Amino acid sequence: MSPASSAVHALTLVDRMTSSSAAAGSRVLAVLFVTALTAAASQVSVPLPFTPVPFTLQPMVVLLGGAALGARLGATSQVLYLMLGIAGLPVFAHAPGLPQGVLRLMGPSGGYLMAYPLAALVTGWLAQRGLDRRVWTAALAMAAGLAAVYAGGVLWLAKDLGLATAMALGLLPFMAVDAVKIVASAVVLPAAWRMLRS
Fold it and tell me: Which of 20, 41, 74, 161 could cross-link to 69 by cystine, CB 3.0-4.6 Å?
């Protein structure tokens, strides 16, 4: 196998942690775990007085999950999360005046939520090319995934509020905290690889 093709087919963290005989079942469990973790992270929701979008830990889980699972499985975990929410299970963050279910996707956080599969896909795709092995490249991969979340959220808000207001309410208040979360997550990924190699 050439270096280029091996880079394209680099192992993910989940691949590295599972034996070949139990790989399929382990991957299913890993996808379900990331889906459940995304739902749990939505329960840590802090309403902010200056924006209709609450602060949650979900983006960090989405990005870490995408990096650990890879593009296809990472996106699958988030599609499953959205399907559970659309079905009415209480997996979405609190939104005043909006019941659980598909109507949550119509609220101010809908664009962010709908961008989760793309964010996991982007981060996972970059991780599969080895960017999750070093802190700064892992941070770059996660920043690319977070950009997908921001783009979905801001564009969703902009349809009602205009782009400038959407950026002021849906992007700027979160950038500093999300940068810290990315750095923290980017440290975790190479550390996990080092542990698996030892």
Answer: 74
